[in-house]
Amino acid sequence: MGRAGAAVEAIRLRREFRAGKGFRKREPPRTALDGVDLAIDDGELLGLLGPNGAGKTTLVKILATVLLPTSGTARILGRDVVAETAAVRPLLGIVLGGERGLYSRLTARQNLRYWAALYKVPTPVGRMRADALLERVGLAERADEAVERFSQGMKQRLHLARGMIGDPRVLFLDEPTTGMDPVAAREFRSLVAELRGEGRTILLTTHDMAEAEALCDRVALIDHGRLLAVETPRTLSGWVSDFERIDVEGVADAALAGRLAAVPGVADVMATGDGCLRIGVSSREATPAVLQLVVEAGVQCIRTSRPSLEEVYVHVFGDRGLRV
Amino acid sequence: MGLLWRSFVLQLQVVRSNPDYFLGLAVAPLTTVVFVSFVRHAGREDLLAFALLAPALMALWRTSVMASGEIVNEDRGQATMEPTIATPSPYAAVVLGRVLAVTAVGLAGFPVVWLVGRAVLDVDLAVEHPLVFAATLGAGAFAMSGTAVAMAAVFALARSSRIFQQTLTYPFYLLAGVLVPVSYLPFWIRPVSRIVFLSWTADLLRASLSAAPVDRPGLRLAVVVALGLAGLVIGTVVLNRVLDRVRHLGTMTYA
């Protein structure tokens, strides 16, 4: 089942969490990952895209050896994350998003030197590497300041430096730009792009489609613990731009909805209020035909917009029948 | 060794910024006054060594037990446990290095208690066997750290370590004969006392204050070290098992 050249592999990976405790133990377990098959090539940056609770963090934690799978197999550079944990850990760097995950009362430099020791980096090398990373992530001037005084963007950059302190071949970034302002997020992305340029294999989880499009070689879409598709951002972008939503108001013709639904490329027509319709269009060619019909019906209030990511999931994935 | 030292340094840095770790030391002078007053009121000047050593040993125990709980608790609360576990270093070694640092801080209880005894209570006890005294402090500190790793395993499994921390203080002071000699305890409980390293440590420290020759100091020191080593080995095995369990349950970090 393994894929040649894959740096990271997940094969039928499943993870369940017990739902209840004590008397509630008999409640059915909650499935966080449901038979995920995934392969990330050596040197590839793969984005894992999905809404909150989709199973992204669970997958990362299993691959990073901090969570055990209920069933299935996962390998990092050919080594099993469960059976060969000790061999896997030196190969990995992990960056979990959020405010936590650092010793907040210690300085950035103290944090990095400590983590260097945990990765068994010799002390002189660890010192040099910590300094170099602080420079690289733009924290050199604040290196001797307690982390608790850092902004979230600075903490995230320090998280990245911490993830890099062991010079890992494989890096897991779990929603690293969550909570960052747009400028900080852009800087962070350029850092990640540099790391990818160094030939590291990176798994980046995010629910930000722009981030995924900007950085990733391929994007895996996950929801409800199931991998829905693995495509290049270009393909994914095509799905999004082909899908448009047209909202119209003041519809007097009751038969208009039926005529619109019959237009090739119209995914659905939904009444959203008195005299209001929402038309979902799944191909670019359908839009002029839809607009012509609504104008002919005397509608004057027309608005087109891109659907939200969630709507893309529902419509595009549903239309294409993409399943694990 | 590098990992132990770096963990030791990290914990010293943590301790410096968190006065909570000094609570055990902070109450030691007060406890000293109370215990010395008790034995004097009872007219038992012969027990002054007990009254003076007990607060120092209690400070050491309390500081280390608190640290072993806090290290695990803070690592889970600050979400530093997951990235720590994901590194190639064994968590038990990290905990040991960090507890050693706190234990070293806890040893400050001895000079503190001595100073209070001398300056406030006019108690002047001489250390008649300084080598035995120093060796016992070293062995006791190691044994304390090993035992604290075993306790950390329990704390890692518990949702809240605070309750355990509180529970593991006074019963152990009694069991170890820190203030009341083990020979005063009910007969059936004495064998249990003998498997607590603190009882051997307390006996040896008291013996080193007495002018009489210390009976078999080498053997007794070896027992202290062996009990500490046993705690460390058991703690490491149990901690690894517990970590496997929390990896299985997915409860390594508090949400």
Topology diagram in text:
The complex is a heterodimer of chains A (324) and B (255).
Chain A: E1 6-17, E2 30-41, E3 45-49, H1 56-63, E4 71-76, E5 79-80, H2 85-88, E6 92-96, H3 108-118, H4 123-136, H5 152-164, E7 170-174, H6 182-197, E8 201-206, H7 209-215, E9 218-223, E10 226-231, H8 233-242, E11 244-249, H9 256-261, E12 266-273, E13 276-281, H10 286-296, E14 301-305, H11 309-320
Parallel strand pairs in A: 3-8, 3-9, 6-7, 7-8
Antiparallel strand pairs in A: 1-2, 1-4, 4-5, 9-10, 11-13, 11-14, 12-13
Helix pairs in contact in A: 3-4, 4-5
Chain B: H1 2-16, H2 23-41, H3 48-77, H4 81-85, H5 91-106, H6 109-119, H7 130-157, H8 162-167, H9 170-175, H10 190-194, H11 197-209, H12 217-249
Helix pairs in contact in B: 1-5, 2-3, 2-6, 3-5, 3-6, 3-7, 3-11, 5-7, 5-12, 7-11, 7-12, 11-12
Describe this entry's structure for a reader.
The complex is a heterodimer of chains A (324) and B (255). Chain A is an alpha/beta fold. Chain A contains eleven helices and 14 strands. In chain A, a hairpin with a 2-residue loop joins β12 and β13. Chain B is mostly helical. Classes of the chains: A alpha/beta (324), B mainly alpha (255). Chains A and B meet through β6 and α3 of A and α1, α4 and α12 of B.
What is the structure about, briefly put?
The complex is a heterodimer of chains A (324) and B (255). Chain A has helices spanning 56-63, 85-88, 108-118, 123-136, 152-164, 182-197, 209-215, 233-242, 256-261, 286-296, 309-320; strands at 6-17, 30-41, 45-49, 71-76, 79-80, 92-96, 170-174, 201-206, 218-223, 226-231, 244-249, 266-273, 276-281, 301-305. Chain A is of the alpha/beta class.
The main sheet of chain A comes to:
6 strands, mixed
Order of helical and strand elements of chain A: EEEHEEHEHHHEHEHEEHEHEEHEH
User: Helix coverage percent of residues of chain B?
Assistant: over 70%
Shape of chain A: elongated
> Mean pLDDT score of chain A, rounded?
85
Query: What is the terminal-to-terminal distance of chain B?
Result: 33 Å
Rounded Rg of chain A:
24 Å
